[in-house]
Every structure is written in C-alpha cells, then in structure tokens.
Write a structure and sequence with these properties.
The radius of gyration is 16 Å and the shape is globular. The strands form three sheets. The chain has a six-stranded antiparallel beta sheet with strand order 1-2-10-7-12-5, with helices on one face. Strands 9-8-11-6-13 form a five-stranded antiparallel beta sheet, with no helix packed on it. It has two helices and 13 strands, in the order E-E-E-E-H-E-E-E-E-E-E-E-E-E-H. The protein has one domain: Sandwich (Jelly Rolls), CATH 2.60.120. The chain is mainly β.
C-alpha cells in the first residue's frame, strides 16, 4: 500500500496495489497497521454508502462538530468522483484551504479525511457508488455543513456549477466566513 501525503497536513491518499489477471483484480482495501502508522490510531464505527445517478451530483460539504467529529476513509466503488476536503480546524495554518482528488471505481484509492475537515464530492459520471468508513456515529445534533460553492474556498469543481444537483439541505449551508458566527449561536 502506497501512502501519498497532500499539501495540507492530515488528509492522505491510500493507494492499494491491484493484482490483475483474466478474471479481474484483487486488492487489499484496508490494513489497520498501515493506516495507524500513517494517520494515527482511529477506530471506525460505521460504514456508509451513497449512490448518485447523474453526473454533477454534489454531496457536501459535510462535517460534525465535537464531540462527534468524524474522520472519513472514502473510496469510489463505481463511476468517477471529484472528492474534496476543506480544513476547518480553528487555528490551523491551512484553515480554509482544501485538497482534492479524482477517484474511480477501478483505481483502488482511498481518501483519508481526518476530523476537523469538511468533506464533499461531485460525480463526474453516471451511477457513482461511494463508500466511506467513519470514526464517529452520525449525530443530527452535531451535523453541520459548509457551502460547496463558496468562492472564498477556491474549489475548482470540474463541471458547470449551474448544472449541479444537490439536496435542499446542502444548498442552505453557510459560507466559511459565516460559519464561526453560526456555530457560536448553536
């Protein structure tokens, strides 16, 4: 397993080796020892999966507040996605910055997004299937979001933003500059 460090401390890409033959391929998708060495000691408590029918579907940017902050280990099982992590850790040197990657169903790449990051993705192809492990259970009381299209974030989404399909909830998330005010009120 190859581990790739990114421009912001915390998020990582885990790239597994594919063993291919005429039947298809085999790969290790998770090794606790390699994960612990690269990302620290985290316990995954819940697995999630989402299916998106159409290209341009946006899910995010989501996060949970302490004490229920979630780390996520994300993989694309089918289709192709553009995946993003935004640093929202107070006091971080990279606060408000993001890292992104493109993942496909056949590439055996996993994106580690630690607690303290907002996460989201958009689909680039039809019928995308995304799975992710999380380090804390879903908590509606701690569930928050960040505007996926906040121009201050500078995310270069690889599709026409006017064509985005997203949930009503995701369309109401605040911009980063308004996030601290909203969190203090809750």
């Amino acid at each position: 397993m190859h581990i790739k460090r990114l421009n912001i401390e915390g998020p990582l890409l885990f790239e597994s080796r594919l063993f291919q033959d005429e039947r298809g391929y085999f790969t290790e998708t998770f090794r606790q020892d390699a994960f612990r060495e690269a990302a620290g000691d985290h316990v995954f408590v819940q697995d999630n999966r989402s299916h998106s029918k159409n290209p341009g579907t946006v899910r995010g940017l989501h996060f949970q507040m302490d004490p229920c902050a979630q780390g996520k280990l994300v993989t694309c099982l089918a289709g192709t996605i553009f995946d993003v992590a935004v640093d929202i850790r107070p006091g971080s040197r990279s606060f408000g910055q993001h890292v992104s990657t493109v993942m496909s169903g056949g590439d055996a790449v996993q994106f580690w997004i630690p607690p303290g990051f907002a996460h989201g993705f958009c689909t680039l192809t039809p019928d995308c299937l995304v799975a992710y492990k999380v380090t804390a259970y879903y908590s509606p009381d701690h569930d928050r979001g960040l505007a996926w299209d906040d121009p201050d974030l500078g995310i270069d989404w690889p599709f026409d933003l006017k064509q985005a399909t997203l949930s009503e909830k995701d369309g109401r998330h605040p911009r980063l500059r308004d996030l601290a005010i909203l969190e203090k009120e809750n």
